[in-house]
Specification:
It is a single chain. Strand 3 and strand 4 form a beta hairpin. This protein is mainly β and about 450 residues long. It has 3 helices and 31 strands. About 45% of the residues are buried. The protein has a 5-stranded antiparallel sheet, with no helix packed on it. It has a 5-stranded mixed sheet with strand order 7-8-9-10-14, with no helix packed on it. A 5-stranded mixed sheet has the order 11-12-13-15-21, with no helix packed on it. The protein is globular.
Length: about 450
Amino acid sequence: MLNHVLFTVAALQARALAASCPSLTASYPAPSVASGYEAKLVAQGLTKPRGLTFDNKGNLLVVERGVGVSAYTVSSSDSCVELKNKKTVVGDGALNHGIEISDDSKTLYASSIESVFKYEYDSGKITIKGTGEVIIDGMTTEGTVTRTLMLSRKSKNKLLVSRGGDENIDLSTVDINGGESQIRIFDPSKKDQKYTDGVTLGWGLRNAVGVAENPKDGGVWSAENNADNIERDGQEIHENNPAEELNYHGKLEDSKNPLLNRNYGYPLCYGAWDTEEIPSPGTLQIGQQFAIAEENATLQDSFCNTERQAPRLVFQPHTSPLDLKFDTKGENLYVTLHGSWNREDPVGYSVSVIKFNPDGQPTEGSTSTNALSPIIGNSNTTACPGNCFRPAGLAWDKSGRLYMSSDSTGEIYVIVKTGGKALDEAKSTSAAPSGISRMGSGIAVTVLACVFAYFL
């Protein structure tokens, strides 16, 4: 009798949860998800969603390219997440990627190809006051358009802004004073700053779209989208070289940071992935930098390895890393791989994780080709990029769930561990939206009523 009752309760709970948790269906094959993880589609119909962040009330803010900043309220339980009540927070079609928010959620930052804007934000009303102000400008380029923003949590009053270059191989970036293909540090309390006024954290970075700070030790990392269609000694080697890069920039709070103002190679030097494809590789190893000068490139390899900062890790070429997010303990770094457009066999189109040691460095060595462990990806990459999702932005909610935007399909996914458990277990679940308790209470009442009905 008791077993039968328990079975009935479990079935009723499952039905109640299913009924209270609407499911969205993608137009392409269901994603491939690694063992131990779950991924659920929670929003559709967005316009090229890119950067994501949460305010202190648990509202999800999204940059929609060509639209501005939109917001969703989040209703959730352990096994169900719903995004509701979408509204426009900032109506500015020039905004296209970067977004950040202060710890108290009173200040919102967003970027366009030209400027960084600051807005007075009210998380209770999910609104801004006024039209905002420009705090940084002078960033327009003819090539890359994204300006990633990262507000340091370890070193207060420092805003990092990443800016790419004008061309695929922009030779003008050999001059540090130009301000292109760099990450610079700014004081966000100031306004009317030119990009070239910022302190140079790193340069020689073709397009470091992903930027993150390790919450454990304050180490700053960037993910670089490397050049296409490169040649060496007149030979085309672009299919499997150069590698995408994960670069380390030291700690912002370290006044003697030896990596401050370091050059990471571009446009003269590039990380190697497939050394057998590179003409005259000599002793070149995976992860080391090589030159692509038109004449005697091999003779310049020594310059690349002694005068330029090598990547800490390398990824398969053309995977296009776009965002980086650490978990609370700094043990895992999650990466969105937007995917290839210039490769015969599509690669990327996934979210992967990189394991980190307690010393704040990746567990894998710099010559590894296995640093990335896929979590969620397209089950049929041969249909990409036309008929698949393309991961772009990432954000954590207070319950340790990871949200991912797909700009190509106008969607948002949420990623958790099996059973709806937090991906970042160190994050508190006590601050979950109030909708949880109401949903849970309703299910409990329904189940108890049915149990009593059974005995009667």
